Amino acid sequence: LKVLSHIDSILRSPRAPPLIYRRSKGPVQNYIKENGQECGFEHLPLTIEMWADQLMALKDLHRSLRKLSLALVPWHTADPQDNRESIRVEDLQFTVDAILEEIENKEKNSQTPSLPTLFAIVSHFQKLFDVNSLNGVYPRMNEVYTRLGEMTNAMRNLHELLELDSSAPPTVVVDTVGKLRDIINENVTEQVQQLLGTQDIHSIINKLEEHECFFPPFQALIQDLLCLLEISNLDDILPTVRNLK
């Protein structure tokens, strides 16, 4: 009777869940407290059985949460409760909180690429710029950056020299340079024709042939005069001849 009275006092405690205490509605049998009132825990065995099932289910739930935790946050070390016989609600809450924290961090850092994405980017760079090893990635990046800077400066200068808009694509720059080259070639041809005094290509050929016929004998004559007069400068030929006269 004292044991029943002690149980009844626990069940009536303010800390006890309402589920485990019910006042008896029928006749009381064998559960009389010292003050003569009914105990009100005739249904307690069923409640305890339900709780026992729930405690067993807590172990299964803990194992499932641990698997989920290892998949989402594998860098977290196994908690020391894994080897305990009894699993507490606090243990499950700790695992759930760790998973929720990781999900929140992923949402905040959703722009951060994953390791497979970074690996794919590096591999693509190696293929594009013919880099055989990871050690060569940084030097090639620096080289590409330097070359890109040089090309950008060159294109900017060409845009300014050719008086093109800064948004003009490289093809327009190349076409403009080609047209400018054609104009220069035409001007050079005209200047050569004016210099030679003829507009006919055949006349130019004839003049060159005449030069080839005249220049060798003239050069031989000049060399003989220099030797005969014992001088070395062409400008001294006429003064020396006048002195002889």
Structural class by sheet pairing and helices:
mainly alpha
* Percentage of residues in helical conformation: 55-70%
C-alpha geometry: rod-shaped
Unreliable stretches covering 5 or more consecutive residues: 24-39
Percent range for β-strand residues: under 5%
**SS elements, strand count:** 0
Order of helices and strands: HHHHHHHH
Number of domains: 4
The largest pleated sheet is described as: none
| Average pLDDT metric | 76
How far is the N terminus from the C terminus?
167 Å
Q: Return Rg in Å.
A: 53 Å
Task: Figure out the total of helices.
Answer: 8
Kindly describe this structure.
The protein is rod-shaped and about 160 Å long. The chain folds into 4 domains: 77 residues; 51 residues, no CATH class; 30 residues; 45 residues, no CATH class. The chain has 8 helices and no strands. The protein has 245 residues and is an all-alpha fold. One of its GO terms (molecular function) is gamma-tubulin binding. Its main location: cytoplasm. It is found in: Cytoplasm, Cytoskeleton, Microtubule organizing center, Centrosome.
